[in-house]
Amino acid sequence: MNRERPFVSKLVSDIQLPKMFRVRQHFPRPKIEVDKIPDIIASLLSEDKFSSQIKPGMRIAITAGSRGVANVALITKCIADFVKLKGASPFIVPAMGSHGGATAEGQREILAGYGIVEEYVGCPIVSSMEVKKIGQTEDGRDVFIDKNAAEADGIIISCRIKPHTAFRGPYESGIMKMMAIGLGKQHGAEVCHAEGFKNMAKNVPLFGQAILKYAPVLFAVATIENAFDETCKLIAINADEVAEKEPPLLKEAFTYMPRILVDECDVLVVDQIGKNFSGDGMDPNITGTFCTPYATGGIKSQKVCVLDLSPETHGNGIGLGYSSATTKRVFEQLDLPSMYPNAITCTVLGGVRIPIVMESDKEAIQVCVRTCVEIDKTNPKIVRIPNSLHIEHIMLSEAYYDQAKQMSNITIESEPEYLKFNENGDLW
Questions:
Q1: Which phi and psi (to 5°) does residue 420 adopt?
Q2: For 68-109, how does the pLDDT look when each residue is reduced to its tens digit (9 = 90+)?
């Protein structure tokens, strides 16, 4: 590959990148202040229909997922504190399907990365990939969940409700999915994914309902986040209310989703991708890089350029395969063993493919512009975002300047100027 690099560089060296300017995108921002979270959770769970289910001496499993949920360590600790207040013994179980390389230690490490460690939450973290059959779905399929959770006296589902990245239905990312796939570990996730994302809207509630029926699920504590990755709603839902109450909450979560406020671009530049931003590395609800035809949305672009991985993703570059080009820096960080189990389990391999690898940030952007068709290459439309989770402040190329001046939900924060690269061609 290195022998070819000088010729490849020459192929894109004449592509002049446009001036870019910074903008601030404006979204509604309902928010729960972090210091209010403990009191809100204590108040919610003090309601008799929740608190009466927790008896002294019970062992209570509390789920914790692999997503970068706002305030997840604090929320987990608050639930554990309430359980202890009632005289029961809480423990945390990773509920993340095949994530973390489908290993117990890998899943424990993911939780530690979010601050969910025994010293902070004040209770054991019991990580295991062992599962136990608890019953069958209505159509006769076996249902497995985490063995430690299955054998507990009660399970509290802690999760976030938000739109999924690969399918649409009344239950997407949320309580039902946390039970059906998260608690199912590698085995349960594989069974639920076996019929593909085309059938996921059917299978998630099918397996979720079976878990509600056969496992000792008590209730759920769910969050909804605003466009700024902040907690804006906390809800407690009893086990017998999940089927009815989750769909309206998903619709509410959709209303808080941010988006890139220009609808189309020639090239989308994403500074970082990672599992801490999205299970898909970059949330296709923002970037338009969907892995299946069963969900749509996000910005429409000809090419997508990924410049780096987040430190928090520990080399897991899942989602990279939906980009058009990346950098040598990303390629050298990739931890393929951590990427492949999730892709194999969910039956969708596109996200772990490796796109064209360029030597530097500049070349990666240039090759995307170079390979766009039917565009004005002297004035391309480029959108640059830091990641798919934080898009309040983004950059637009000069071609958008007049349009941005007319948009009431965008504030221009700088005049157009050329991107600054160091001697290696990487952005400052």
A1: -105, 125
A2: 789 999 999 999 999 999 999 999 999 987 777 778 888 999
